[in-house]
Model the fold of this input.
Amino acid sequence: MNYTLNQLAVFLKIAQTKSVTKAAEELNLTQPAVSIQLRNFQQQFDIPLTEVIGRKIFITDFGKEIAQAAESILNEVKAINHKSSAYKGQLGGRLKLSVVSTAKYVMPYFLTGFLKQHEEVELLLDVTNKAKVIESLERNEVDFSLVSVLPNQLDIDKVDLITNKLYLVGNRDRKFPNKPQDKSIFNELPFIYREQGSGTRYVIEQFIERNQLKVKKKMELTSNEAVKQAIIAGLGYSIMPLIGIRSELTNGELQIIPVKGFPIKSTWHLIWLRKKRFSPVAFQFLNYIKSEKSKIIKERFEWFEQYP
Done:
């Protein structure tokens, strides 16, 4: 047998995604290139690794065993590369983070400087909703998570990063008085919710319950971007984090509607399991955050202060 590391990586990705097309997308390869690699890899075995039924590809039991072996081999190769970097005095390894979807506007600014300093570090960043972020942290699948609502069920440590401000937002079709509106305005506006499990959804529901409001629920969408586009199109209004609407406020696609008691404020927290045994990469990243946090906030988030 004379298979290559590249063939192992391609087959593993096919096994994980159960799709040649998805594997090609995640590997940044063309679909024909992935198909050729799979065919060349299969030719080295007498037993089928996959079978196609209809238009779906299925991994055989033998293929699943080969995929597990491939993952083990590729992890060992990465470990060798990281050890090589360490001997050269370079920090290497994986930094694994999960962040809530709106935190994608925050986390990159706290990563850029660190990754430029340590080019051998490999970043794995999962952007999802609050429920899945907490689940990945609880399973110890990540080093850190970024959330605005702290989990009650986990024993964690944290570093507070920046303030999270949420406002009532609409498009420019309707003009509102400059003075703050009464909270009863929520009774008349068609309202767009984030999905269950979202941190923003949790904040909205807490606000509505605390103020005993009757809200006209118009729709429920599964991402911050989807909510934003729906508001721009005139489908309704929502409470949104300031961090994700800077461009739309600047170009006039969205407006902040002044309401008494707003903005709703929380904090973006970088959290980790209290008993977590950090890798050298995770340990250095935490030190970087603690030492550079104030500088990053001043350079990248000073515009926040324009909005009271």
Observations:
- The chain has three domains: 5-87, 93-162+267-306, 164-265.
- The first strand starts at residue 50 and ends at 53.
- The chain has ten helices and eleven strands.
